[in-house]
Amino acid sequence: MNRRELFTVAAALPLAGAATAAEPRTYKRIACEEAWITPAILAESRKLAKAAGRMTFENGMTEGPYIPLLLDLGESRLAGMDAAGIDIQLLLLTSPGIQHLDDQTAVALAAASNDALAQAVRAHPQRFAGLAAVAPQDPKAAVRELERSVRTLGLKGAVINSHTRGAYLDEARFWPILEAAEALDVPIYIHPRDPAPALDGAEIPGITVGWGFSVETGTHALRLILAGVFDRFPRLRIVLGHLGETIPFMLERIDNRYRFEQRLFSLPKLKQAPGDYFRQNFFITSSGMNVEGPMTAAIKAMGPDRVLFAADYPFEDQAAAVRDAEAVPMTPAARAAFFEGNARRVFRL
Ligand code: MN
């Protein structure tokens, strides 16, 4: 046992119990939704914030204690991971990525950020992996950038921060991006952002993140299912954070009321029930939700091979995320799958 493992086990001891503490850890911990930003994107967001007169979620985070942490892909990030007992961070451009920028800027900064991300992964291949930023503003460019990022840069999929100017990926003009992800055999991680205008009312100051983000992104996921995306792209993999943005807790009601509305209004039929697609095409991470009750329920709803660990660094305390997740009762096999195996399979790490 090296010093880091000893520290980790000691940190987990009071909650995880003697059985865990007695054995050295046999799995790596991969955290799957860890945020970063580039100076160029931050500068663009600051221009928008200045024009708006204040920082907003719509225009991205531009100030506060998280900024230096987001900018660092080097030693201090690695030191924090070591102290928390996290072996690998899967890096995602922080929300809203480049989706709040004009088309040309978004396309250029997506490519530049992917180059920078690939460079960080090359510098620390045992510690970092990354998802590509793509600009849905320009679907053709997004497809080209996804292909370049996966084939040339070695990135593991794409992150899309929910809506783009109020539009969701269920609109046919975005389907080439979904088609490309399926063809490349890489997942798309749909991460939250401020609610779209269509969800006016979901953004409540104080719980915009805690509630509005999940309403936004959960709605996005269900729109994909109901649009027949997974009948058209049956091998497409979508990843959601925050234990699936409340959907795993609603599957039975979603399915039985889906059948009710279909009969009542003679709606067109999907090949399967919405919940079937959610269990077949979706994976969820525990970002910001490393809490025993919901995690146990989510694993029961989705199966132990569909729930992955994430901390949501730097917005959550990653050491606490590890400690809290380790305290959730799981079999040794389920724990290894949660922390390592599922991420390796879903992201081909
Ligand atoms: Mn996040």
Summary of the model, kept short:
The chain is built from 16 helices and nine strands. The chain is α/β, with parallel strands linked by helices and 349 residues long. Manganese (II) ion (MN) binds next to strand 1.
Tell me about this structure.
The chain is of the alpha/beta class and 349 residues long. The protein is 51% helix and 9% strand. It contains 16 helices and nine strands. It has helices spanning 3-16, 18-22, 39-52, 66-71, 75-84, 103-123, 139-151, 175-184, 208-226, 229-232, 242-245, 251-265, 274-281, 292-302, 318-326, 332-347; strands spanning 30-36, 88-93, 128-130, 132-133, 158-160, 188-190, 238-240, 282-285, 307-308. It has a six-stranded parallel β-sheet. A three-stranded parallel β-sheet has the order 1-2-3. Helix 1 (3-16) packs across helix 15 (318-326) and helix 7 (139-151) packs parallel to helix 8 (175-184). The longest helix is centred in the N-terminal third of the chain and has 21 residues, at 103-123. The chain starts with a helix and ends with a helix. Manganese (II) ion binds at residues 33, 35, 191, 241, 287, 312. Manganese (II) ion binds next to strand 1.
Task: Itemize the secondary structure elements and their pairings.
Layout (H helix, E strand, L loop, with lengths): L2 H14 L1 H5 L7 E7 L2 H14 L13 H6 L3 H10 L3 E6 L9 H21 L4 E3 L1 E2 L5 H13 L6 E3 L14 H10 L3 E3 L17 H19 L2 H4 L5 E3 L1 H4 L5 H15 L8 H8 E4 L6 H11 L4 E2 L9 H9 L5 H16 L2
Parallel strand pairs: 1-2, 2-3, 4-5, 5-6, 6-7, 7-8, 8-9
Bound molecules: manganese (II) ion.
The site of manganese (II) ion (MN) has 6 residues, from β1.
